[in-house]
Batch of 4 targets.
Target 1
Amino acid sequence: MHSPSSPNRDHLSRHPDRRAFPSKLTRHKPFSFASVFDDWLHLSDREWREHLDQPVFVAFLNGQPVGMMGLKFERARKMVHRAKLVSVYVRKGERGTGIAANLLHNVTEHARDHGVLQLELAVNAENSAAIRFYQRHGFVEVGRIPNGCLGHGTENDELIMVLRLNNR
């Protein structure tokens, strides 16, 4: 069992029902992700392996996953110094407890250990709490994609944010 302060990046990929956590979240928290449940439901095993090839950090509380944060490394040679934060979620009742900060710290260290110099993310421009969180942790807004996320009868801009990682 892992406390919220020690996210386990490997648990989700080894978990016997590894499809359950992301697909359950997209079904029950549809406004929290760009994906929808059906996007995950119909993935082939090969597509699942491709998703799980990228690190996913999961925070647990009392044996239950309460938060997750993924990292998508760029593969093109001229962009290999960059990675994207993806699939960020912390259960509503656990927000403000430090779980997201711990996840971000672990993801950032993992990225830095793998030569990443810049973390990037896209966040719904209406999600002021998430934007403040990222700003507190050094991310700066570098752009906006008008109507970057469509769904549930809404059109929301996405903010593009970047964090330059210092070399140790």
Note: The beta strands are 56-61, 64-73, 82-90, 118-124, 140-151, 154-164.
Target 2
Amino acid sequence: MDYEARRRLQDSFIVDNQSVKNKDGGLQLSDETVPTFDNVVSGNKVEDNAVDCGMTIVSHVANHGTYDNTISNNWSVGNGAAGIMLDTPVPGGIVSNNTVTNNYVEYNNLGGIGLHTHAPGSIVNGNTIEKLGCGQQGGSASNESTSRY
């Protein structure tokens, strides 16, 4: 892998996977070592993951960022925390301009979709959440509204 490729995670696809009954969470898209952007997470099933979120879109490194990703057509049911979480626990962490569309979430312990910051100076904004199908944690079976956060 060349140096430039190691400096970023972009233009990748996480498609048609199953993450079921893990001890922790399901799928995570993160900026652990490089900024993470322009990725597609679609058609995945994350279910009954014990203690964490079904899908986590997160920034763990200040000024890297997890942004401009598309999270679509996924199934997230019965997870220990949120069905899909967009968050950053660090000052300077950035989770922005992601699109979460046409996902189904139900029976997750912290609700369907979560937006969360843990520290001053962290940024979670410009994200679009639309066409969400919700079960028992609240909301309606088909929500055609679009929200920007």
Note: Confidence is low (pLDDT under 50) at residues 1-7, 138-145.
Target 3
Amino acid sequence: MGVHSIPSFIKKQVDADIKPYIVAYHYKLDPDEVRCWDNEAIARAYYAIVRMGVIK
């Protein structure tokens, strides 16, 4: 079973679940605190990290 056999809805859910942890790690915050943010705030912080070129 490879990565190609994982359903796309599971990949999307994992992406959504991991973004708060990436934001927390980058900004040195508590992941539980970031998970309390609304989805738009998490997405904005995540994409700011992407725009800075820290992650691709």
Note: The longest helix spans residues 8-27.
Target 4
Amino acid sequence: MASFSQKFCLQYAISAFTLDQQCCIGDLWLRVYRHLDRCPDGQRATKPVQHIGHDILYGCQSMHLVVTVFLTAGLGIQLGVRNGAISIELARPVSYYFYIVSQEAGRIAYNALFRSLPIGLIFSLTVGFYVPSHWTTLGYSLLSLLLAIGISLNIFYLIGISSCWTTEISWAHFIILTLMFSLGGQMVPLTFLPEFLSQLAKWLPFAGVVYYPVLIFLQKADHSVLLLQAGWLLVLFFANHWITAAARQKVEIQGG
């Protein structure tokens, strides 16, 4: 069994690999910005764009994705469906939803400490790290990040609980990750998408997970987007509770 030091080194190796991936993506889009000679909002691409571009694409995205996108597939619910353990878990006198979400929240806290934080420290000690000019922005950024984690947890929970009907969720997990990376503004900035698709993507929950938290931190988005994030969180929260009740009824009818 691996020791703590071995696990610690492994987490730093994973962080370095994630950092390398983000550097490649960041360099690609930074070159695109320079080639177009303009920022995503239409301003001229001057030296500050290069500085903020590095922060967005190298540091902020790497730290952000670790705690919002790279979660356990289906939050592990599909495993309980396959071995039948979900029938016992649903029968417990506790909320199955909060039981599963709290377990993943613990994993997120671990990843934030041992994977996300090292990335931020590397950038702080080497190229520096972006600090908002207004301290209130940090509060809004933290709130946006918590909402993004909540949305992501509910999306992954929705995929996992659907395994009560589908059994296999690998295809759904792959689709959701693709949508988060493409319509969330990580692989392709939303402003580079066709106008109709760009406007549509800004209203989807994927932008609330990946796009808006980073823009708020960089003071490039209005705080009103927090209402959009909160709205999606509430919709997914109640939807998951309704689907969980349906799953419990399905398990009871089938006798576990």
Note: The two ends are 34 Å apart (CA to CA).
